[in-house]
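User: Structure please.
Assistant: Input sequence and predicted structure:
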Amino acid sequence: MIRFCSCLLLLVATVAMPLQSLLANSQTTTLPPTIQSVLKRFKLDGSGLSIVVQAVDSDKAILSFNEHQPRNPASAIKLFTSYAALEMLGPAYQWATELYADGELKDGVLDGDLWIKGSGDPYLPIERMWLLIHRLETAGLRTINGDLFIDQSLFEHITEDPGAFDRQPLRAYNVVPAALVSNFNVSTFLFRPAASGRRVDVQIVPDLAGLRVINNLRTVDRSCRGYNRGIAINVDDQGQVILDGQFPARCKIYGMSRSVMPHNVYTARLFRKLWLESGGQWTGRLRTGAKDFEQDPLLTFDSVFLSQAVRSINKYSNNVMTRMLFLTLGLEKFGAPATAAKARLAIEQWLPDKGVPLRGLMIDNGAGSSRQTRATAHQFSKLLSAAWQSPYMPELLASMAISGEDGTFSRRHVVGPLKGRAHLKTGRLDHAVAMAGVVQSASNKRYIVVSLHNAEDAHRGSGHAIQDALLRWVHSR
């Protein structure tokens, strides 16, 4: 009789529990039929897929599949770097680039050299370089009767081959970090068919002195499509940019951004352009070195706040910015010069306090442009669970791409019920596709969602198809 009553009470309690509550507290390792259907369509067995879905206010997953298998998460690893930075440095952290007058400054004339000491500022686009120039003029400098010295000593010099990752050394995402990088070290080439003949007009932004372009492009009568619109950009041993290929005559304009100059050369030429345009004078040359000054800097140029930099990093997956932030973590924790080893150690010492296990984790350069990076879906879910409880959760969430709205997810789910319902960090490499973030379901419950997919040709369609099926499944809850 006692046993019967206990069972009856349990049955009553179970019936009284709302169905949604039962679903929220259940856990399955079986993939939803819609995801199984996608795997079947692409002839995949699911062995390369890892998924975790859990409510933000729960420590239990409602769906977990291969969650402890280390995968290459591509750019999704930026969440580790950016969240660690928000916690360790604070969202109001700023980098301070210092400019020193090495000589007598009188009546706006510097009889000596101007030094720029890189601080690791990851966000110095041309607009902020213009602001730096304006602030320098406000500090009383108009004429430089000497050279421009660039001091990169705060970061250890990286000898990495920018083409080692994917044999695309000129791509913006392969720019190697340094203590001073201006405008992401990128030149934008704008192509237009010439008004007459088969020539192609080329405009470079910013137009920096000393950059020689050999334009072998010719138009061809076809629609405006195709890989790189048929354009090949290379740099020869003399630093000349060589343009080859056939450009579609039906293109009105097409742009390509490439890194075609060393960091210091690019920054010196950009400085000269903006300085002369502002009315300043400088006839000296670029030099590099390292020097400690006893006097105060002529100008301390503060960066944007870290919270602003993190938005560019995660929404648009900027690699060089992330790598500079990553190195800053090592610099602040262990001192100069900043190295990737110091940065990895700083994050690895911080993660256990957030409940994130280290086994199988390899952050490498912090940005995801690496074949060696590894993390598990379980580690991502733990990281995001900790972030949800953090006072800096709003800053991290706001830095992620919004489905159908902006960033790397702006062209997906532009229409439909998922538009604006997901904040995600995406990742994509050859044979690797990933996403991690927070999704708001139709019932307005928020879920942490992680999907890591490493499989042959995953980047060619199956990866995004699986992500979309998973997002629709989560949204339906």
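The first helix runs from residue 2 to 16.
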